[in-house]
# Entry
Amino acid sequence: MTETTAIAPRLTAQPSYPEDGSDAAAPRALKYVIERADRTFRGVARGGGLIVLTIMVLVGLYLTINAVQAVSAVGIVEFVTETAWSPETNRFGVAALLTGTVLIALVAIVISLPLALGMSLFITEITAGGFQRFMRSVIDLMAAVPSVVFGLWGLAFLQPAIVPFSRWLSTWFGWIPIFAVDGVDPTNPLPNTSLFTSSTFIAGLVVAMMVIPIMSSLMIESFSRAPIGEREGAYALGATRWGMIRSVVLPFGKGGVIGGTMLGLGRALGETIAIYLIISPIFDINPHILQRGANSIAAHIALRYGEANSFSMSALMAAGLALFVLTMVINFTASTVIARSRSGAESEG
Amino acid sequence: MITLPFSRRQQPGRYARATDNESAAPTVQTDIILPDIDSPSGLSANGGFDVRRELFGETSAGELVADSITAWFGTHKVLDRVSLTMETGKVTALIGPSGCGKSTFLRILNRMHEMVPSASLSGEVRLDGSDLYERSQRLTWARRQVGMIFQKPNPFPAMSIYENTIAALNLTGVRANREQKDQLVEDSLRKASLWDEVKDRLEQPGGGLSGGQQQRLCIARALAVAPRVLLMDEPCSALDPTSTRRVEETIAQLRGQMTIVIVTHNMQQAARVSDECAFFLAAQNTPGVIVEHGDTGAMFNNPQDERTFDYVNGRFG
Ligand SMILES: Nc1ncnc2c1ncn2[C@@H]1O[C@H](COP(=O)(O)OP(=O)(O)O)[C@@H](O)[C@H]1O
Ligand SMILES: [Mg+2]
# Structure
């Protein structure tokens, strides 16, 4: 059995070779017989792609269909702008939940990006041999630690340890709105530390610890593939190690840095259990990241689904849909940005 | 960060040296007709020298002496007590069969050998008398004084042609103003005989050039830091004949301005471009040594060693 495929429509530029006696040479449709192995491969690949795409669409559809009941009860505008969450009294919306989710994710990325970059460069550029291999497996291992473990660690160890730092930040940088904490008295020698617990900052910090290994893993992969020829070219010009990293390794690994950051951001937006353990949920937009009270869609769903009747379940589905859409928008934006930026990795000759 | 010895500008002797060098007409035995290319005399007498001296200090050619170099990769000894003097402003060709340690020797001359984790060496490399391997010597200083061109062109693909040419400024932390940069780019590209081909597209990526152009871009990039010695490891082995000719022409123009050491497998090329020649050989399972060295003409026409005679006449290797 043979199959033919025309690839002619993909040709964009047609060579104009003058031919004897005819100046109207029509491009020839190029056909070929597809090998059996290629056909099988194409079938499997196509099947896999279609299945994944179908599942994605079905998830979106399912969420949408189930969200309709709740959203239509309050109207889409109110659903997006309302901060409270009380389906029983028909007052609920995702404004506080969405901003909370984004704030925690932003804190996580702002902290994890420089740390992950530094660690990846340390591992690929400074360590060598057995120690490098050891560090790489440690990173991969850390990426596999379940988030509930990070959550417990954050609650039991990190939170008490970091509160003095939160307090210091708010004392000295409280004039920047996001670091302000309402009701704190810097002159009080016995401050109320509970003002600083369960905050967006602490939740973001724990999520940062979780996403660092994932981000690093990708960055290490791309940095270590920076071509030795370009590295040597830089060194031969008298480059310092940092100079070489800046002009060869970082441009080459740009795709990995952006990709790792996006993966980390996705993880941070969807993180549930660690945030659930740390935050004390509030239903207000709280831009003061150091102050007690934060929220996130995923943690909120985990908290509320047990007590939900069919209407409040529909409201939770709507919240889930909002997170789904947010993640999609961020990912599409990111891939557009990546596609536009020229990565050093592409023009390797 | 490199502190710039600006005071060197005041030294009167340098100008005289530079002019002497330029008037020393190349005496290359070339048997091919070279295409019309950017004339070196089109440069103002001191066009490139001024800006380079401002930025980098000393720019004159230097004498490089390798003294009793032994090199190992792990426990594998690949060179055994090799000594060679590469004279000021001359072109020295290193020839010999593959695997006899020419690249290793060359990489020792600008401290690139130690980039290989298992590599070690003994001996001294002296540039005008000062040992590059001296404890107090900066690695970055040594590599800037002794530039290197690799077998495979390696421009920075994410940088434009302009940025590629002056990449070393950024890499070494030397500051220059826009005017100095422009001057350095034009002068370096002219010296590498690439200016006419790229002057209208300096903002395009360096990775988009042809192989031969990329190699000349790498030469321009190396010239921008005013190296006193330029090492070339088979710079033409990945190039087509026309590009090869242009690189050879560039070498001919640079002769006198800097000391050049070139590894080549092409006997005609060695004969065309070099003043001095050294023949490396590693017999079965023994480390490489220099069998014979001396004036290129003598090496090719009247070799003292039978093995040299066989090699230059294409009998082996
Ligand atoms: N990175 C390396 N690690 C181990 N051995 C090497 C390395 N590079 C070169 N060698 C060995 O050193 C010897 C000399 O190699 P090289 O200097 O590249 O020779 P040439 O340039 O004359 O062809 C060869 O036997 C080669 O196998
Ligand atoms: Mg070699």
About this structure: The longest helix of chain B spans residues 178-191. Confidence is low (pLDDT under 50) at residues 1-46 of chain B. The beta strands of chain B are 64-73, 76-86, 91-95, 119-127, 130-131, 146-149, 229-233, 259-263, 276-281, 289-295. The two ends of chain B are 45 Å apart (CA to CA).
